[in-house]
Amino acid sequence: MSWTRIVAILRKEVLQIIRDPRSLLIILVIPLVQLFIFGYAVNLDVKHVPLCVYDRDATQTSQDLLKHFQATDYFNVVRVSDSYPDVVRNIDYGVCSIAVVVPPQFAEDLHSSGHASVQAILDASDSNSASIGMGYAQAIVQSYSSEIQLAWQQAQGLATGAPSVTFEPRTWFNEDLESMADLVPGVVALVMAVVGAFLTSLTIAREWERGTMEQLISTPVGKLEIQIGKLFPYFVIGIADTAICAGTAVLWFGVPFRGSWVVLFGCSMLFLLVVLSLGYFISVTAKSQLGACQMALLATFLPTFLLSGFIFPIDQMPVVVQWITAILPARYYVSILRNVFLKGTDVRLLAGDIFALAAIAAVLVALATRSFQKRLV
Amino acid sequence: MNQSVPSVVVKNLTKRFGTFVAVNDVSFETRHGEIFGFLGPNGSGKSTTIRILCGLLRPSSGQASVAGIDVARNPEAVRQRIGYMSQKFSLYNDLRVVENLEFFAGMYSVPKKEIPGRIAWALKMAGLEGRERNPTSSLAVGWKQRLALGCAVLHRPPIVFLDEPTSGVDPVSRRQFWDLIHSMVGEGVTVFVTTHYMDEAEYCNRLVLLDRGSIVAMGTPTELKNERMKGQLLMIECEPLGPALELLQAVPEVVDAAVFGSGIHAVVADAVVAAPKIRELLSAKQLHVSRIEQIAPSLEDVFVSLTATRGASTKSEAAA
Amino acid sequence: MNSTPAILVSSIGKHFGNVRAVDRLSFDVQAGEIFGLVGPDGAGKTTTMRMLAGVLTPDSGSATVAGHDIRLDPEGAKQDLSYMPQRFGLYEDLTVDENIRFYADLFGVKRKEREQRSAELLAAAGFAEFRSRLAGNLSGGMKQKLGLVCALIHTPRVILLDEPTNGVDPVSRRDFWQILYSLLAQGVAILTSTSYLDEAERCHRVGLLYQGRMLFCDRPEALKKKFPGGVIVVHSSDPERVHGELHGANGTRDVLLVGDRVHIFVDDAAKRLPELQARLDTAKVPYDSIEQVTASIEDLFVSAVEREAARQSPAKLS
Question: How distant is the Cα of B35 from the closest Cα of chain C, in angstroms?
Fold first, then answer.
């Protein structure tokens, strides 16, 4: 193997990348754009649910209850209705997704019999948001109910009742249950997978298409020299992109970073090895740039998005699909990233993931190397 | 057969792309029933001129008319009166022979009633009768060429543009193709050929030599070789060639000398006078001369002598 | 002349599906010689070149290039050869200098030697001041010359050029050939291919290729003498009348309209010339001159192909 030749290929590749505005766009702009889109626009938290209120009691008590709905971030009172038809119309037109109706005898019933009901009507066409919204509504009513009880007990001079078991959920690692913190590490994986494979998928195909490959393979350059020389610049770019994404995640999105930078970059390098080799293999096989980038997107974006555990938890998937994710490198990388950002546990616990990633890397590198031949056709 | 009514008239035609002048003050006329050749290398302005004459590009200045129609004012009308056969043919390989003909008949708005007749005529002319249901991809290159020509003339245009029609085609097919062209020309069609292939230019009745947007010569192939060539051509065979070449290039009578195969082609003012002088000179330096004779220049020799003296060394060449 | 040829091809063959692109081809190229593979598109020129350059594997036969067997040791051959494919194979987004440096590095040419050689070659090719221009911004002729410079930056023993001057302006084409001829003194063997029959005359020896097989292989002068019969050319202001009058005359095989001349292929030029002249005079057909000329390589090619076609299947004659 000749060092001079590897450097020559490397230098050429770098010059071509610098002089091609589109690849610069892909390298710098797209990762950040994806990060911001997923960070901000894809928000799995359900907040500011548009709410319609219909107070048929119009007493101090009913207003007190409704104030609880107004005070919270989870609801946004967009309409105060004065009739059922109006409520229905607003739900139909999508002005609100939930309506809370206080019945006419609410205060009286509460003070006389100690029981009262509140009606909630919801638009379940978006059943996800609806059930979450329902949960919030129930929680608010429940809390109001407890408040009244306590106040009444205190007013009666009674002891605060028998001890009861309260349910105190505490979410570890992501206390605010902010989906952003959960998503962003996954987005880093998605971005690296797509950018890495996409960039390299063009490199060989482009030379075939432009006619420069025919002349290149008539020289003594070895196929391994070509592979190393071509992939190394993209490897460096990939590390830089990882750093940019990780930095943005921590500094801009405020995602915590509790693990070790060494582990982050070490595992990122392994993952890069995987996606770059995949891109190289696609480039050799596809022979046309258009085919190559389509294959690259298909092979990275959808699997990473759907199956890596990035948004949809793996253990909720059907067993067969879970088996499939076992060969998906993004699955292990997402898990490692989540650990490094949010958990910061001992790297030895990541050994399984790291080993799987390394094994996949070895297979793909070998595949990429074998697939390229210094021959036409 | 040659009527002297011009079919294509071009006057001071110029086309600029930004600061680049692709066609520079070009003027010529073609006659009915003539094979007119436009000869020049890639980048000389041939394709640009053709596109202007086909109404695809607007001239920057000057005038051009085809079959009496001003190309700048009425490009659509021009396209109905011309046939165009492009380089490497624009046939659809996955259609059958007759389907290609039907397609082009539609493209050229051949009246519906006349289509079957014209198609039959084109098939006969191309020699493809009985093969109309064959897929176009199964035809050999020579046959594809004839089919492409057929497609280009379905609407019986008075002027036909052929762009590099026989480049890369085997010589037998090429000769048969030119027979076809001659029969069309015999009926009064003007055939306008563009090529960079000097050999092909020999088939034209009249030629225009183009170099970087300007016309450097115009005339019949014989006129160009006899009259436009600056000087006469000597063929010198001697051993060894390298030193002989150096010597000759230093001689004042030799306008230009270049190696050609196993000999040297030298351009001199007068071959009869120069030949013995050169023989003497070379023998004096112990260079064994086996042959010196005057040879007829080729069109390429003419082209080189005309363009090399236009200060056309690559040092001042503006890149494309 | 060297006894071991720089290129030796023995019965090499390649097929793509049902098509025999190259069919039992054999020829040799000596050091210090320019050999031309001549034939139309589809004759097998590019396929042959690719096999010799080691980028395409032959199906049958063998060949040695600069002493290396291209089936057993194609990579070894690549150190000693240069290949210029038909399509421009350099990087349009790199400058002239960067392309040269790239190819120099691939062949292990040391920096000092590279700088010296590239200065020489660029000067010879006439574009020393375009060193920092992007290759994509060069004209066609300059691109081809750059290709040649990159091919010569290391000192190959064999140079393979596939249709190197296609579409190039005649002045650049001359410069190109000038550089080639200057290499011969150093013992380089050059194999070039072309579909221009007139370019064949520039080569020392020519191999006429048709449908994957070689029809002839000899020096251009010798080839022309192989033409059966003779050629008579009539210059006239009314060539169509001449054509009409002489068509089918005794001893004529074919009468061809070529621009302002008529080419007549006869069995015996000396015998037929006065006969044809008499016919023209009797019919009062105007002509400027009538003379015997040497057959061109194209004439030879055509007659060989026609004979070949007739031999294969008489019914196939178009």
Answer: 8
What one-letter code names the amino acid at B15?
Answer: K
Q: C130 to chain B: which residues are within 8 Å by CB?
A: 319
Q: Which residues contact A165 (CB under 8 A, 6 or more apart)?
A: none
Residue-wise pLDDT for C198-233, tens only, equals 788 889 999 999 889 999 999 988 888 888 888 999
CA proximity to B53, closest of B18, B30, B79: B79
* DSSP helix/strand/coil, B77: helix
Structure tokens at B243: 């030193």
Q: Does B172 touch chain C (CB under 8 A)?
A: yes
- Per-position b or e across C155-185, b if 16+ CB within 10 A of its CB: ebbbbbbbbbbbbbbbbbbbbbbebbbebbe
- CA distances to B149, B245, C171, C185 from C175, rounded to whole Å, are 36, 14, 6, 17
DSSP string, chain C: --SS-SEEEEEEEEEETTEEEEEEEEEEE-TT-EEEEE--TTSSHHHHHHHHTTSS--SEEEEEETTEETTT-HHHHHHHEEEE-SS--S-TTSBHHHHHHHHHHHTT--HHHHHHHHHHHHHHHT-GGGTTSBGGGS-HHHHHHHHHHHHHSS--SEEEEESTTTT--HHHHHHHHHHHHHHHTTT-EEEEEES-GGGGGGSSEEEEEETTEEEEEE-HHHHHHTSSSEEEEEE-S-HHHHHHHHTT-TTEEEEEEETTEEEEEES-HHHHHHHHHHHHHHTT---SEEEEEPPPHHHHHHHHHHHHHHHH-GGG--
**Mean pLDDT in consecutive groups of 10 residues from the start of chain B, 320 residues:** 70 93 93 89 85 90 92 89 81 91 90 92 89 88 88 91 84 87 89 86 90 91 82 85 82 83 85 87 85 86 77 39
Is C42's pLDDT higher than 50? yes
**Residue A4 with chain C: CB contacts under 8 Å:** 105, 108
Chains that touch C (3 or more CB pairs under 8 A): A, B
Over residues A20-49, the mean pLDDT reads 78
Q: What is the ipTM of this complex?
A: 0.86
Tens digits of residue pLDDT in A42-79: 666 667 888 999 999 889 988 988 898 888 888 889 98
